[in-house]
UniProtKB/TrEMBL annotation:
Record-given protein name: DC-UbP/UBTD2 N-terminal domain-containing protein
InterPro entries: DC-UbP/UBTD2_N, DC-UbP/UBTD2_N_sf, UBTD1/2
PANTHER family for this protein: UBIQUITIN DOMAIN CONTAINING 1 PROTEIN-RELATED (PTHR13609)
Domain DC-UbP/UBTD2 N-terminal: 16-113
A Pfam family recorded for this sequence: UBD
Taxonomic superkingdom: Eukaryota
Region (Disordered) residue spans: 1-36
Annotated organism of origin: Protea cynaroides
Length: 114
């Protein structure tokens, strides 16, 4: 009886809570438009890095929303979070998904477009 409950609890403890990435700085100041373009280029080419398109789509949705919803998206898609900031994830088949910080948050030297 106790063994079943213990393994259930242990499995729940392995699920990582998603958090925002640590502050980062782009090599040179970057505008909002440039950042958006970099993100669009990454997401347009991401399926070519390997893995499944539906997992890339779920990761994009998670990256572009608030943390509580991102957590639900990741869990429902069966994504295994290796880094709590989503920079490294795996799908249930073991394929690795690496996300650059620029798709997850804004740099500290971002220049707002006027």
């Amino acid at each position: 009886m106790g063994c079943t409950g213990s393994s259930q609890k242990k499995q729940d403890d392995n699920a990582k809570k998603i958090r925002k990435p640590k502050p980062w700085k782009h090599p040179q100041p970057i505008t909002t438009t440039q950042l958006r373009q970099m993100r669009d280029e990454f997401w347009d080419t991401s399926p070519h890095y390997g893995g499944r398109k539906e997992i890339w789509d779920a990761l994009r949705a998670a990256a572009e929303t608030e943390l509580s919803l991102a957590q639900a998206i990741v869990e429902s898609a069966g994504i295994i979070v290796a880094s709590a900031d989503l920079t490294t994830c795996y799908d249930e088949r073991g394929a690795k998904y690496e996300l650059p910080k620029y798709v997850l948050s804004e740099p500290t030297n971002l220049i707002r477009d006027s």
